[in-house]
Amino acid sequence: MTILADDPTAAALLDAVPCYPVPSMGRSPGLDALRSSRAGHGVAVGNDGAMLILRRPWLALDAPLSPPFAAHLPYGSIGDPKAELRCGRVPGEHLAAVLDHFRAALPNEAAAFILWNEATAEFAVHFPQIDEATPTRLVYRPPACEPGWHVVCDMHSHGRGPAYFSATDDADDAHATKISLVVGRLDDPTGPVMAARLCAGGMFLPVPRSPFSGDPPCSLTSPSATFFPPPSTIAGSGSSSWDAVETAPRC
From the record, what ranges are coiled-coil (predicted)? Predict the structure, then answer.
């Protein structure tokens, strides 16, 4: 057995976030266990790049971290990208309830969370405690989830303004695993607009279509952040449970 680190703290970190070379033939028990796990994350390294493998009870994500390596490596392929909602898409009535709440808060900004229970497969809307709300500033507290409940969506409004992710949003989302959404133009007669991204592994990734089922009454706009990998990398994957990316059409 090869010892990867002689420092106990470093060894614990490597054990928590392992890195597996992909065998050129046969299977990797370590990778198979990670991909089928309830929760965890690690990195697969193949002859065609590196892949983040992240699992949460509600999410299964395989996201490329790099383009193919220039050097020859005697490894197999990392496989296709994947972004799968294990919890399924959020019922559209929850989005309608959130939009009603956001409109009632005008001209101020407001916030909401979509939670999911892995035991009952139930979704719920949580309206957080607001410490400060103005038309241009919002300070709110994330929920302290009971066992079995998970945050799937973190949503806030920009009132009558456009939907985009601010520098404050980037800092708040940097170390979270969730779908982050901003809703704007709530008083527009043609309907509000929504920017969305998947926050995972310190990356901001495009979401394939809306995470809500039905016909959400909003337009999904192209988020303002710069993404890696490009939207087509994950969203174009046939293994995704969300359809193709929609960055302009009405939801």
Answer: none
pLDDT tens per residue, range 63-73: 999 888 888 88
First to last CA, the chain: 53
Q: What residue type is 30 in one-letter code?
A: G
For residues 188-203, average pLDDT: 90
**Alpha-carbon gap, residue 146 to 22, rounded angstroms:** 37
pLDDT for residue 244: 26
Give dist(CA 45, CA 66) in Å, integer: 10
For residue 62, is pLDDT > 80?
Answer: yes
- Type of residue at 242: W
Q: Give me 135's structure tokens.
A: 């038309």
- Residue 75 pLDDT: 94
For 93, 150, 160, the CA distances from 123, given in Å and listed in that order, are: 11, 10, 28
